[in-house]
Amino acid sequence: MIMRANTDSNRSAIFRAMLARPTTSFLMEAHNGLSAIIVQQEGFEGIWASGLSIATSLGLRDCNEASWTQVLDIVEYMADATTVPIVVDGDTGYGNFNNARMLVRKLCQRNIAAVCIEDKQFPKSNSFIGDGQELADLGEFCGKIAACKDSQTNSNFSVIARVEALIAGRGMSEALDRAHAYGEAGADAILIHSKKSEPDEILEFARLWKQERPLVIVPTMYYRTPVESFRDAGISLVIWANHNMRASIAAMRKTCRHIATTQSLVGIEEGLPSVKDVFNMLDYEELYAAEHRYLPAPEDNNSTTTALKLAV
């Protein structure tokens, strides 16, 4: 069952504790309220609100085509539907320091545990598109981090600085220099990103970084790497970044293709969750109980409530 209208301000503290653990923690991607519920029900301790996945679910490209207010609306639904910490992929902060600090204030109001901002130019493009993407000026991005930290209204809220120097082909030295500067500016953790299919540069960065601040990775491209390698390297947090969105595409394509081809639900219905399963996921029983508590009793025995009808 889900918990609605949760106002637990401890989610940020729980996430901070995850970052501080000597062991590796994991976040799973979600892109709307339903996928967030599934992530929590399947046992993940936290949720990654992926910019790519949210934009894709809206039929938009991951190039800041989705506005920050659209993203904010979606993560609010995700927070209301769950109780675990949510980390929002905040792209570049959607502009300069002023846009970024506005975003942080709004995320704190919605009980979001953390935001991750990346050191690229606004508007951004997805990191896996093209080569040599423009990076933000070092001083400007440090100021953006400081503005975010100064603007948080929850003392446990975390700001994760995402370093794109390896993605942009700038090399290990610049990646380390930027990470050090971002830490000094107040970042609570560093996300080091790579688009290589092997983890060598990520593991080398982790070795040179020496756990100065919690280190976060997104192994989308180097997914064959055993998790033990990340644990041995002292990685604090691993993000499975877009897999629910991609899995949903595969499932919907398969379903639509079958129904379009056969003009029948035979062979599809048997493999799907029942409608009753959907009602159970969204806790229709709570609504039914609330109707009995707050609405007058029906005048005749043939009358039934909306929730009861739906739950049958």
In percent, how helical is the residue content? 40-55%
- Looking at CATH, which topology of the largest domain would you report? TIM Barrel
Strand content: 5-15%
Q: Could you state the oligomeric state of the chains shown?
A: single chain
Number of helices: 13
SSE order, one letter for each helix or strand? HEHEHHEHEHEHEHEHEHHHH
**Distance N terminus to C terminus?**
17 Å
Main β-sheet, in a few words?
8 strands, parallel, barrel
Structure report:
The chain is 45% helix and 11% strand. The longest helix has 20 residues, at 243-262. It has 312 residues and is α/β, with parallel strands linked by helices. It has an 8-stranded parallel beta barrel with strand order 1-2-3-4-5-6-7-8, surrounded by 9 helices. The protein is globular, with a radius of gyration of 22 Å. It is built from 13 helices and 8 strands. It folds into 2 domains: 11-241, TIM Barrel, CATH 3.20.20.60; 273-311, no CATH class.
Q: What's the structural blueprint in terms of helices and strands?
A:
Blueprint: H1 11-20, E1 25-30, H2 33-41, E2 47-49, H3 51-57, H4 68-81, E3 86-89, H5 97-109, E4 114-118, H6 138-151, E5 158-163, H7 172-185, E6 189-192, H8 200-209, E7 215-217, H9 227-232, E8 237-240, H10 243-262, H11 275-281, H12 284-294, H13 306-311
Parallel strand pairs: 1-2, 1-8, 2-3, 3-4, 4-5, 5-6, 6-7, 7-8
Helix pairs in contact: 2-4, 5-6, 6-7
